[in-house]
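Suppose you are handed a protein chain with no further information: no name, no annotation, nothing but its sequence. What can you learn? This example shows the usual starting point.
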Amino acid sequence: MSKKRICVLDTGKEWGGGTNSLMELLKRADKKRYSFTALFYENYGMGDGPDVGSEIERLGVEFIHMKKSPVKLYAKGLKEAGRALFFFSRVLRKKYVFNIDRFSRIIPDSERIAWVLKDGGFDLLYLNNQPSSNLEGILAAASTGVPCVQHSRIEVRLKPLEARLVNESVSRVICVSEGVRRGLVESGVRADKCVVVYNGIDPSVMPGRKAELVRRELGLHADSVLIGTVGSLVERKRVNLLIEATARLKKTGDREVYCVIVGDGPEKGRLRKEAERLGAGDRVIFTGFSADALSYMNAMDIFVTASRAEGLPRVILEAMLTSKPVIAFDIVGANELVADGVTGLLLKDGGGKAIANAVKGIVGHGNKIKAFGSAGRRRVVESFGIERYVKGVEKVFEEVFSCST
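A reasonable first move is to predict its three-dimensional structure. Written in structure tokens, the prediction is:
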């Protein structure tokens, strides 16, 4: 049996949970059945570490760096004119700008991707983001007749055109959670195209450094309470709420409270200023991007994510793997991982104040930290193993191949 050639298209700009999940798939997928080539717009890096292209090639996978078409001057002008013309309607402005992008960049890029598919004789196009950011890949698959699988990693609401393109040209949509699947179906994607394959994690992965060492490096006393988060510092993650919670706490009982924020991104400068403004500049520690984020999680007492939109946050799996209670808001993905009152707490609303109260509630009952953490680790090991994830994706591949022969 000849190997099936799979082209992976990733249009992302930074290293995140979706990148890590893709790397695990490329590392563990059956090499006797599949041969992968990765096509990326950005050769982004792991902070100051190696870039994604080097890491993919280290796995024995061909890497193609194809930069996105530059924004054309006429397109910029048309966009500005449209924004002024449709100042009275946000909906019309977005629709107008989308159509400018469609004709000036998306369609030309789809033609370049189609050339790669035809020249490489690929049997499948695998899209590693979500439909709205993969339209050029969907169009390329349609024009070449190559089957297409979309791996949708975040909750989205699609435009009618986007949903129509998915229904017409995508063979299967892999959804990382039931919530992601529900959102796509509500947007108009056919339910029979959508299949849920939960993200997974390798339960044998261990932190690179001991918790005590990390806490000493951060300058913390042994009896301090350390809360924290890991992820890209973008508005959607709402890290400002965690900073607000830290400012509200400072102490819980007789224990000093500190916060470690592991990650980098465009919001970093603003978040630093926010910590200073709230009088928590000495309590909030920014580490920047770390390739050993698991060690920081392991050093925390409680992991917090305040994100307002996700798919199935891999960082929650990692935090639970290190036996940490998780505080999260009741959003898609998080509410399928965190068992409220069992492995952590799910917050309905309340912002930074709600996070602060949740931290107090857990720390104030010392047994909860251990009980929540132990239950979380069991949940990850039993239900979210990496092999289950890889086999789930491979099953979708085989279903698509069987339908296309």
